[in-house]
Automatic annotation (TrEMBL):
PANTHER family: 2,5-DIAMINO-6-RIBOSYLAMINO-4(3H)-PYRIMIDINONE 5'-PHOSPHATE REDUCTASE, DIHYDROFOLATE REDUCTASE FAMILY PROTEIN (AFU_ORTHOLOGUE AFUA_8G06820)
Provenance organism: Pseudonocardia parietis
Protein's name in the database: Riboflavin biosynthesis pyrimidine reductase
Cited Pfam families: RibD_C
Pathway assigned in UniProt: Cofactor biosynthesis; riboflavin biosynthesis
UniProt xrefs under InterPro entries: DHFR-like_dom_sf, RibDG_C, Riboflavin_Biosynth_HTPR
Keyword entries, A-Z: NADP, Oxidoreductase
Domain Bacterial bifunctional deaminase-reductase C-terminal as annotated: residue spans: 144-209
Chain coiled-coil ranges: none
Top-rank taxon: Bacteria
Length: 244
């Protein structure tokens, strides 16, 4: 089976930031609700996916809050391979965490009114104790790659195991750019909120990280624009790839 079509769906401020003080404002929240509705609402535009991929820092910032997992180094060996704890969840949060470091305390996350089952995306670096920690909480995991995460294998596995032809790439900027650079992002969908906060250090839509990706001029073709009910602008692009 080919990999699913990958859509990077992101909420962004007018100054190109994906996190910051503009988010919890009235304008920021109204825009986030529109953003959520497009990919997760009952009448959503993106209908053929069963979840979204997020980077390790996004999971720490929003869900696990930089706690350390309490691991049992004496845990009995877990069976080899992937672990599907909940086979029929309607929605999944695919948490990219190659070394196995996130301190989950439950097997689902809530995002507005969407509940998603947590699926950790691990590499061969994740140890037995961490996998046992996930199993004990009913958290699923997929293993893709040995020393480092194999992004193509990750998305192909997700397509095969969950039977989906569409997958949402949900940030943050570091993970987004790795997918763009790997040629694994087909569409960019941005909800541009009519707000900004001017913060310098906040992450932007794309962030090259020398451990994983490099900066390079990249082109996009505009496929659609729509003004949403709250005044946000929804922009859709095809990802064309490197340009000179
Ligand atoms: N506005 C929105 O729509 C939106 C959506 C999602 C997230 N966000 C925000 O984005 C912020 C985080 O963005 P971020 O760019 O700092 O981090 P990120 O993309 O969430 O996570 C990056 C981390 O993921 C891990 N990773 C593993 N393989 C990777 C690969 N091939 N390429 C890139 N990363 C890989 C690395 O963890 P290790 O360091 O452990 O190796 C890396 O440091 C958060 O504040 C979050 O709230 C906003």
């Amino acid at each position: 089976m080919d990999r699913p079509r990958i859509i990077c769906h992101m909420h962004m401020s007018l100054d190109g930031k994906i996190v910051g003080d503009y988010l919890p404002t009235e304008i920021g929240m109204a825009s986030q609700r529109e953003f959520h509705a497009l990919a997760w609402g009952p009448d959503r535009y993106y209908r053929d996916h069963k979840g979204w991929l997020s980077g390790r820092i996004s999971s720490e910032d929003n869900f696990t809050h930089y706690r350390k997992p309490e691991l049992d180094d004496a845990a009995p060996p877990v069976p080899e391979g992937d672990h599907i704890a909940v086979p029929d969840a309607p929605m999944h949060y695919f948490s990219v965490d190659p070394s196995g470091s996130l301190a989950w305390t439950q097997n689902s996350i809530d995002y507005f009114d969407t509940r998603a089952h947590v699926v950790e995306i691990l590499s061969g670096r994740a140890g037995n104790a961490y996998k046992a920690f996930l199993r004990a909480q009913g958290i699923s995991y997929l293993i893709a790659g040995d020393d480092s995460l194999d992004l193509e294998k990750t998305v192909t596995k997700i397509g095969e195991i969950y039977g989906v032809e569409e997958l949402i790439l949900g940030g943050g900027g570091g993970l987004n750019w790795s997918f763009i650079r790997a040629g694994l992002c087909d569409e960019l969908s941005i909800v541009l909120t009519p707000a900004a906060d001017g913060a310098k250090a906040a992450q932007s839509l794309f962030e090259a990280d020398e451990r994983y990706s490099s900066p390079v001029p990249t082109g996009f073709t505009l496929d659609g624009t729509r003004v949403l009910d709250d005044g946000s602008v929804w922009l859709r692009y095809t990802v064309d790839g490197p340009i000179t």
